[in-house]
Amino acid sequence: MWVDNGVQDRFGEEDPSLHHLIKERKWQVQRTVHMILDKNGSPQTSSLDILRVFAEHFKSKYDNIPVSGECMKRLMDCNLLTVPDAANLALEEPVMLEEIYHAIKTGKPHKAPGYDGICLEFLKETWEMTKEDLLQIVNEIYTEELISDYQKFGITVCIPKQPHATQVEHYRPLTIPNTDQNHSQLPPTMDAGPAQEQPTLQPNGQFSI
pTM for this structure? Predict the structure, then answer.
């Protein structure tokens, strides 16, 4: 019997039963987008057209917003509260190992990993081996602002907000960043290139979210 490698991975070394395969197939069908309305209200049904509608919508929504320099100057002159110098100095201090360990220890378990495939449980289990490397990575991101394109990469999943969603606005985009970026608390940027490709066109030609 032929079994999809992805299904096999999810069930480990145990062969999935027919019940599991049927549930897997139903889940795949339920999450497949068969039709979406574009901004003109025209239905799009092909995988490429659906992908284009999603990509254009999110590019427009999260693109850079032009800001007037004069308006920003007027805003800064409104007697806004400033951060005390002592607090600024504390913010510029390197991240300590104890801070990273606290973030990992108090993190919620069973969360989906980012593109790097590293989950919270992995960091907990390998803490003694990986802590120094993780500390170096986080400090490079936080204090030296050394962020590679790979670290900016995020997987964006579009979750339907209502049954029978037919418009892009009916979906909520959730981005899963890489683990090192997640623990440095730096938000993923929409300029990260691949992260802008919101939905996914599957190898079988189906469009899924």
Answer: 0.52
